[in-house]
Design a protein that fits this description.
359 residues, single chain, alpha+beta, membrane, DUF2953, transmembrane helix
Length: 359
């Protein structure tokens, strides 16, 4: 029994070790095998561009192409196409055809159903039309007799209502005239002193409102001046905090470390091989010379592999560029780990958080 148990444990251990070994190998492959890229661009009559990225014998492969104002791309894993710019058009066309077929079938079936319903309705109507005509004739005679009786009764009622309305109108007119006479007499009784009193009161209210507006204006002005003073003080305080943050020696060292790590990353990512032949001109000799002076600063990086031909007379830009490079994740990871473990960088992060809270 123990022998079997040890054998099982041994096999489990071997399996676990093999899995760990495979994972370790995969991790090392991911870290050490570089991602290679190639960029190519041309401009003569038309603009053309080409970008290619692949990793581990093209297990992962991506291609982007720009030609004749069209972008084409393709992404593959182990040779199998995952995404392709040509595929969606085919799929869309097939889907549209299927949708059209289904729609046409549905329309045809609906039309057949409608025609059947119409035929049934027409048959039923033909049977019932004769009976409806006979019944309608008898009903019309009865309705005419009832209408004649109702109309005579309505005429008598309308006459009585009109007589009552005329009486009520005459009474209302007399009441309105009496009320108007009374109001006119009351208005005449208002004295001149009361009119003067109302005018004086209105004038007093106007002056009071003007004084209140002046007071509110000065109060607002005072508040704005206080706010401006506070904002000025806060700006000065914030400026002082930022200045102390930047002038601190530890923070300076941390910023320097960040700058150096960024330089290392860009140097690593930057293409290792560049071939270019560029013919350019701005149309102005002065500006062409200035551009050439800026480009000459990077001459030490590529030297003979890059050819730049300036044209001081015409405005022109043509040529081709071919660049190749690689990105190794291991080197990027080392640069980032060194930066994170740096004491000055840690202190910089702490001081930055404090500054952020104070601001």
């Amino acid at each position: 029994m123990l022998h079997i148990l040890f054998f099982i444990l041994k096999t489990i251990g071997i399996i676990l070790i093999s899995i760990l070994g495979i994972l370790l190998i995969l991790a090392l492959i991911v870290l050490f095998v570089p991602i290679r890229y190639q960029v190519e661009a041309k401009k003569y009559e038309d603009i053309q561009g080409y970008v290619k990225v692949h990793w581990i014998l093209r297990i992962l492969y991506f291609r982007l192409k720009y030609e004749k104002e069209k972008i084409q791309y393709q992404f593959r894993i182990f040779g199998f196409i995952i995404k392709d710019s040509h595929r969606p058009e085919k799929i869309k066309s097939q889907k549209s055809k299927r949708v059209k077929k289904t729609k046409s079938k549905r329309k045809h079936s609906k039309e057949i159903k409608r025609s059947k319903k119409v035929a049934k309705i027409e048959k039923g109507e033909n049977k019932h039309t004769a009976l409806d005509i006979r019944n309608n004739e008898g009903l019309d005679i009865r309705e005419n007799e009832e209408k004649s009786n109702v109309s005579s009764e309505n005429e008598e009622q309308n006459k009585n209502i009109q007589g009552n309305n005329e009486k009520t109108k005459s009474i209302r007119e007399n009441d309105i005239k009496d009320y108007q006479k009374k109001t006119n007499l009351e208005n005449k009784k208002i004295s001149i002193w009361e009119k003067l009193r109302s005018k004086v009161y209105n004038f007093y209210q106007k002056i009071k409102n003007i004084i209140a507006k002046i007071q509110t204006f000065f109060n607002r002005l005072k508040l704005k001046l206080i706010e401006l003073n506070l904002t000025r003080e806060s700006i000065i305080y914030r400026f002082h905090l930022i200045k102390t943050f930047l002038t601190d020696e530890i923070n300076k060292a941390g910023i320097k470390k960040i700058w150096l790590s960024i330089k290392k990353i860009t140097r690593h990512i930057f293409p290792k091989r560049v071939e270019a032949n560029i013919h350019f001109g701005t149309g102005d000799p002065c500006s062409t010379g200035q551009v050439l002076g800026v480009i000459s600063l990077t001459y030490h990086l590529y030297q003979k592999s890059v050819k730049i031909i300036p044209d001081f007379n015409e405005e022109i830009l043509e040529g081709h560029i071919n660049a190749k490079g690689r990105i190794r994740l291991f080197t990027l990871a080392i640069i980032c780990i060194k930066l994170l473990l740096d004491k000055n960088f840690k202190q910089l992060l702490k001081s930055y958080q404090e500054l952020k809270e104070e601001l």
